Amino acid sequence: MDIGNKIKTYRKIQNLSQEELARKVYVSRQTVSNWETNKRYPDIQNILLLSVLFDVSVDELIRGDLEAMKAKLSNKKVSRAMATYTAIMLIATLIGAISIGTVFYFEESTTVIFVPISCFAIMLLSSFKLERLKNSQDLKTFSEIVAFVGGSDVEKQRTKRVLGKDKIQKAIIMIEFAAAFSLISLISIFLFGYFK
Q1: Which residues of the chain have pLDDT under 50?
Q2: Measuring CA to CA, which residue among 153, 157, 152 is closest to residue 142?
Q3: What sections of 14-161 are H helices per DSSP?
């Protein structure tokens, strides 16, 4: 983003220190420093104050940054959606695995089977949504997903892709997931059987 350089340039034109600029726009000196180093982006109120203070239009101040801002906001929405679907998938899986024990505990009741079936349906739907989001952002490896969610440089991680290794990692994650699910299910069956 370019706004950090513009703020720094206009601040120097006005002969202001970071501390002086901070006082004029009612923020801390660290906030101004973060703007100038592009660690943070000023909110709309601060952009308006800066444009008045520097006597430039808002368009002049943020030109070139709008696309970057849109991409960042879009990434945040996708990241939030990914976190939500992951949480739903994991919770549904956990409840589904635990509820398998209830099927054995209440074996005379046919309606109890709908709990794990519903959980598995929710888990599958969430995993499909999650996979669609990953594909929309071209996220193939675990390190790319972590970088994307953390707001780091995904392109750097994409250059490290090794196609065969990526498939092996995906298979290992699936095997670990299935093993954890099986273990929780067996513990649930044992516990519900023990207290029957």
Answers
A1: none
A2: 157
A3: 18-24, 29-36, 44-54, 58-62, 66-105, 114-136, 142-150, 154-158
